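Schema walkthrough. Field components (list of strings):
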Amino acid sequence: MTATNKAGTAKPPLLETRELMIKFGGVTAANNVSMQIEAGRNLAIIGPNGAGKTTFLNICTGWIKPRSGKVFLEGEDITPLPPRKIVRRGVARAFQIPQLFTEHTALENLLISAAAREGLRNPLQNLHNIRQRDEMMHLLDLVHCTDVADRVVVELSEGQRKLIDIAVALALKPRLLLMDEPTSGVASSQKHEVMEILVGALAEAGVTSVFVEHDMGIVARHADEVAVWNAGNVQLRGTPQEILEHPDVIRDVIGEEVA
Amino acid sequence: MSEISQHSTPRRAAKSGGMPSLRALLTLLAVLLLAAVPFIAPSMQLLINLALAKGIAVLGVTVLLRAGQVSFGHALFFGISAYAGAFLMASLPGADLILVLVAGVLGAALSGLLVGLFVVRYRGIFFGMLNLAFSMIFWSILEKFYHVTGGADGIRLPRPTVLGMVLERSGFEAVIFYLSIALMVLLGWLTLRWFVSPVGQIFQSLKTNETRLEYLGLSPKRVLLSGYLLSAVLCGVGGSLMAMTQGVVTPEYVWWVRSAEMVFIAVLGGAGSVRGAFIGALIYEIVRVYASAFAGDIWQMLLGGFLLVIILFAPKGIMGIADGLIHRGGKRRATTAEEAR
Ligand SMILES: Nc1ncnc2c1ncn2[C@@H]1O[C@H](COP(=O)(O)OP(=O)(O)O)[C@@H](O)[C@H]1O
Ligand SMILES: [Mg+2]
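Field assembly_structure (string):
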């Protein structure tokens, strides 16, 4: 497998990993992971807890360095880069546990993100007066959090924090958005609606997404493709229909969700 | 150390609750009152001037407190700036006051950059102690290289000219006094503006989430460095004013007690509060001078007790108490969100 396509004509995949390996103590969290993520699709990652899904996102974004193996972004080797340099190349991330500025309001978290995206040029301009304010209010609206715009993050519910966390990542206008269990903590009555809007917004902005998800209903409805993780590697990959009807998946993954 | 950062005042971009206009009015009154000191209480002019110089340096420490970092070595930049001014006067007799100030600030900025590049990798106790270490090294250089630095006696900083004019002592003192007030207002205002700016807000979010900062494509170290430079420059301005006011610079300028004093004053005034830095410095100097005149070393006990009371009962410092009074006087109560900050 090479980064330049076999025929040499098509573009390399948006993100590609080759033979990622990492161990934590006795646990092999990434066991020879080779993945290709094509632009323009929504890839769901499913699999039991401890399978190495978060570790995969950590390696792709440079937070954890693999013991061996490489990560390519459109053919460029980004393995040695720190997260911030990968982010600046267009890869944003939302976290399993929201990573927000807890002393700031929901809106301020977004404004900070927009300001970071634009480069911090004017050191004497009020954060609240930056040009992107309306755009950020729109993003808040998108994740149904307009009513808590001026609330300090520590006061928000877990579901709201998750949504703000996603909005903060979206505010960076990424090409690729990695989301770790985006709807966990979000009220089940809201999950589908939020995902619907999110996926719509991603498609509209041309953002490719990868999301770790435990809710098979969400996967079935919003993923273009599914990768099944197990014991540190991709066990299966296919369309949602293929995967969700696969006997191994029904036994190992869905069975566990039900149990 | 985390205690101090937790105690620091609200640091968010939104306008604070209560009555900003009343706050502005009180600030204006205070500045006017200070400006009247040479007329209504001339005997206090020198004392107040030293307090203002110290206050500007304390503002530097205050900036770092906003990011949850405490430096126990910021007198380093205070001293470097003072010595830069003294060396300039020695090599360029009759140099202008502006030049002395610029030389001092450049010295502070340059050393701030060098030390900063190193210390921004650390947080908390290590950050604090590394700053202390740098200031101690510089202190011993000042003490040991007697032939250059004058050792413990220091070096004189003769009166610089003012825009080309040679002034008498009282005239020069008046110039320095009003320059100090002007710089207090200007730098205080700039610092407040910086605090609410995107980079200032990000600087203050360092203590809540460096992971997210990295994932916004930013370098936490660079962000900390920008605030560190600002703090070094502020200490530099304070040191330069102090040196010109006193006419002599000694290693005592960088002595660790001086650094600790800055932290003490910042917490006293309201950790993280711009106005608090100056109110703290004024109270500190006044108590120090008057209490020691009346009863020897009792001033340290007084201030120690005072700080204890502040930390236990009013962790937001004197400015926190003042804000509380303003709020109570105002019609509007702070929302729960604002109180939680
Ligand atoms: N930074 C780390 N240090 C030590 N062990 C880790 C670390 N990150 C993950 N692990 C371990 O690696 C395994 C995979 O974890 P993770 O990637 O979080 O799984 P998932 O997200 O699929 O639930 C787990 O056994 C976890 O305890
Ligand atoms: Mg996980």
